[in-house]
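Case study 2.
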Amino acid sequence: MTAALRLACLDAEAPPLFSLWTPERGRQGYEPGVAEALGDELGRPVEWVRVPWVDMIPAVQRGDADAVLCGQGITAERQAQVDFTRPYAVFHEGVLVRRGAGIHTAADLVGRRVAAIENSTNIALVETFEGAVPVPFGAGSDDVYADMLAALRSEDVDAVVDDDVVFVPLGATHPDYELAFTVQTANRWGIAVAKDRPDNLAEIDSALGRLIESGRLRTVWEEWLPTLDYPFAGN
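Prediction:
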């Protein structure tokens, strides 16, 4: 029997990236679409290992999952813990605020509380906003994105920083929130694999390369992220 491809993920509602897992539909969205394509390419069924955000990398280090396919920007800090495949996505970072807050640039964030997921490229960006007060979210949360939006709505924070793809469903006319500005950071997202599994890394990376070369990754991107530019030239 072919071994399943076990992928660690956060079980949360963050379309178009991913949806909550259900017995009937599994997970839906861009990342599950990438996972399905990978599974097809490798001839392996996909099994989701649903864990809190802070436990995704430890899950692959323990061997509870083969890889993390869930919002992992390729950073030096993470590369010290795990190895990464080539990117399957490239995103910029947006700053979401309450509608009418009068925040339009980084200079408007002086003295403001700005939320982002801890140990992420997003919180690293917040730390570059001079005078802003970083508010890390994530430890122990089952749905960190929902927690950050709730904090913004209740005025516990003044802004939320996340990758631009996360804010796509809110649109330009949401009654509660507006996108203050976007920083062109070109964050590369990859699939994270334990450092003691170079065979795993090579297998998954090669399969991802074939998906890019064949154009199947573009098809998945255009299905779920039609308003964002496909980041890989050629196919």
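The mean pLDDT is 93.
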